[in-house]
Amino acid sequence: MKVQINNILPIIDLGKRVDQTLFVVSQARSGSTFFANLLNHKRDFRVLFEPLHKSYVERAQEVDLPLSLPEDDNTVEYKKFFADIIKGNISNKWIDRENKAGIYSKRLVKLVRANMLLPWIVTNFPDLKVIFLLRNPISVIESWERLNFGNGHDLREMVLLNEDVVKFIPDGLLKTYREEDDAFLLSVYYWCIYNSYPLKRCRPNSFICVKYEDVVERDQTVMEDIFKFTGIKISDLDEKHYSKTSSSSRKQRDSLQVALNKSKEKLGKERLIKAQHIIDLFEMNHLYNLL
C-alpha cells in the first residue's frame, strides 16, 4: 500500500496493475482537463496531473525525457519513471492537485507532453489503456497565442533539434517547414507533426483516438466507443458536468464550424487554404477540414 500526501490529507493508492491505469494523452490546449473531468465524474480515479512537467515535478526534471523516443529504446531510467507513474508511485502537490483525501484503486494520468513519446509508451507498456485526444488546429493555436504558449518559430526550433522527429517528416515537407515564415502556418505544421507522429508510429489498436469536438457534441458513436474502452458512461451526464472545466476552456467550447467562422476574417481565406494543404500533406485531412 502506498500513501501519498496532498497538503496534509492522505491519499491511499492501492492499485498497482497496469490495466487499472488510464492515460489521457493530448496536445496542450486540446481539452484534456475537461475530458478527464468527464471520465472522472464519479471521482473514483486518482488523477495524476501532468507528471512530466519539469517545472513542477523534480523527478521529471531529473529524468529529462526528450521530445520523442525510438520504440526500442531500453533506457532503464525512462522505463522506471513511467512504471512509477502508471503504478501511482509518484506524488507531490502539483501531481495530486485534483484529488481529495481517500482510497483509490484506479488512476487517470493526464499528459500534454507525451504525444511523441506515445509509440514508446505503448510498446513498453502494452496493457496500458490510452485515449489519444485531438482538437482542431484553429482552436488549439488561438489558445496558444492567447496564453503565450509559444509561437510557431519557437516550436520549429524545438522540433528540428530532435533527430528522430526530423527523420519522421518527409523530405519535401521538411524543406517547406524550414522555409516557412508565417507564424500561424508554422503552428499548423507543429500541430500536424505533434499529432500525426503518434497516429502513424503507434502499433494498430494500441489506443483509441477521440476528437474533442465529438465529445462536446456528445456524438453517439464516440460515446459508445469510450464506454466500450473504459467502462465509463459519459453520454448521460447532465450539463453541469460539461461545464466543470477552466474558464478559458469554457470559452472555447464552440463547434469547429463556429471556430472557423470566427477566424476566417482574421486569418484570411488564403492562409486557411494553405493550412488545409499542410494538413492534407500530413494525411490528417480525414480528421479535420478547415475549408
Describe the model.
By secondary structure, this protein is α/β, with parallel strands linked by helices. The protein has one domain (2-281): Rossmann fold (3-Layer(aba) Sandwich), CATH 3.40.50. Helices cover 46% and strands 13% of the residues. It is built from 15 helices and 8 strands. The chain has helices at residues 32-39, 58-63, 76-86, 118-124, 137-146, 152-160, 163-168, 171-179, 183-201, 212-216, 220-230, 239-243, 247-250, 256-267, 269-281; strands spanning 2-6, 9-13, 21-26, 46-49, 102-104, 107-111, 129-134, 208-211. The strands form 2 sheets. A 5-stranded parallel sheet has the order 4-6-3-7-8. Strand 1 (2-6) and strand 2 (9-13) form a beta hairpin. It is globular. The chain starts with a strand and ends in a 10-residue tail after the last helix.
Show the helix and strand layout.
Layout: E1 2-6, E2 9-13, E3 21-26, H1 32-39, E4 46-49, H2 58-63, H3 76-86, E5 102-104, E6 107-111, H4 118-124, E7 129-134, H5 137-146, H6 152-160, H7 163-168, H8 171-179, H9 183-201, E8 208-211, H10 212-216, H11 220-230, H12 239-243, H13 247-250, H14 256-267, H15 269-281
Parallel strand pairs: 2-5, 3-6, 3-7, 4-6, 7-8
Antiparallel strand pairs: 1-2
Helix pairs in contact: 5-9, 6-9, 9-15
